Amino acid sequence: MGKTPCCEKDGLKKGPWTPEEDEKLIGYIQKHGHGRWRTLPKNAGLKRCGKSCRLRWSNYLRPDIKRGRFSFEEEETIIQLHSVLGNKWSAIAARLPGRTDNEIKNYWNTHIRKRLLKMGIDPVTHTQRLDLLELSSLLSSSLYNPSSSHQQIHVQNLLGNMGPLVNQNLLNLATTLLSYHPKTTSTSTSTRFNVPQNVQEINPLNVHQNQFQSFQPNVQPCTISSTTSNTSTVPSYLNDTQFMQLAKMDPLSESLTSCTSWPDSSLSNMWQNSVGEQALFTPAESYAAMASTNGYLDSTQSSSIVNSLSENQAFVSSEVPNNIANMSFSSLLSTPSSSPHNLYSSSTTYANSKNTTTHEDERDSFCSNMFLYSDIANYGLNGNEFV
DNA sequence: AAGGACTCCAACCGCAAACAA
DNA sequence: ATTGTTTGCGGTTGGAGTCCT
């Protein structure tokens, strides 16, 4: 099945197209249609190969091509489709009217891919990068296991290997956590940690709820507004301790994952004190986040939950001060150390960000939220089931 | 102001599937 | 069924434009 390369004949032009060539090509196709691409250039008076003409037409000159920057909706579609289709650019392009596979491919490689890497998301698998999960787990266990000096070395090696993907905030935090172990120091909680100022500004709950809901309308965020919510599905016989015990025994149990509000207990107070009045997490999700950092779970349970929670995982525990509790792991990933990371903030809710939030900044936030919930979509579960 | 580094994207290349004879 | 041709696709490259020092 030989193939004679159509472009190897002498005298055929390569490289950028001139306006005159474009004109000739457009004129010919409008008059005759493209017909056979191989014979087109000769008929149209172009010193180009048919392949080059086809590419120029389909990627640039076609009248139905939409030019200009990608909209949020288009970006959302690309990411969503890529998580299902992979690098099937033509299949993705078929779902985006006016966009070409080449354009989408370029946009993915130059913008989206980099942004995902920045957020610690593997652009191939669309999941949290394993090395970062491992770091998360190690940091957590180092916090609550004073004898894990070998793990501290491991963490430091890991940080070293991650190179440019780790920003100064993460290094500072890791150093701080490893230096000031809560169980090995006798200082008060308030002085135990030396968290960089800009880290304290990160609030994982300032998400774009509208975007989230439009992306995954069947998932309803759980709002914890009252400790005695009458929407509670927690069995009424469960008190604080029993809730914790049940969660400890079987954190993925149906009775817990179906909880939409807290038992009437100090648990909810603790959680709300940590994250504020409006929380997007169910009690079970919140518990899982706390339990995984408190070491209540074994490694399998922990990693399962951390995987499920994805971006939602927060370093929350009664022993961790609020400024750390409010911080999601991914929010520490590589960003210019001179500017606060606004991964979870909108331009209107981020109190300490500059008012001149850029389009790219908004996309960062938008993107992160989409991935947060595209994982849920992948599991085919609703918000209360995915713990 | 200069030039080196970096980014972005149009265009190219090679492969394989689809089609035609 | 076989062989040659066309088309489509995804990865890669080159160079223009921009940024940084």
From TrEMBL:
The keyword Nucleus applies. It is found in: Nucleus. GO terms for molecular function: DNA binding. Residues 9-65, 66-116 form the HTH myb-type domain. GO terms for cellular component: nucleus. Its main location: nucleus. InterPro entries: Homeodomain-like_sf, Myb_dom, Myb_TF_plants, SANT/Myb. The keyword DNA-binding applies. It comes from the Eukaryota. Residues 9-61, 62-112 form the Myb-like domain. Gene3D superfamilies: Homeodomain-like. Pfam families: Myb_DNA-binding. Keywords: DNA-binding, Nucleus, Repeat. This is Transcription factor. It comes from Morus notabilis.
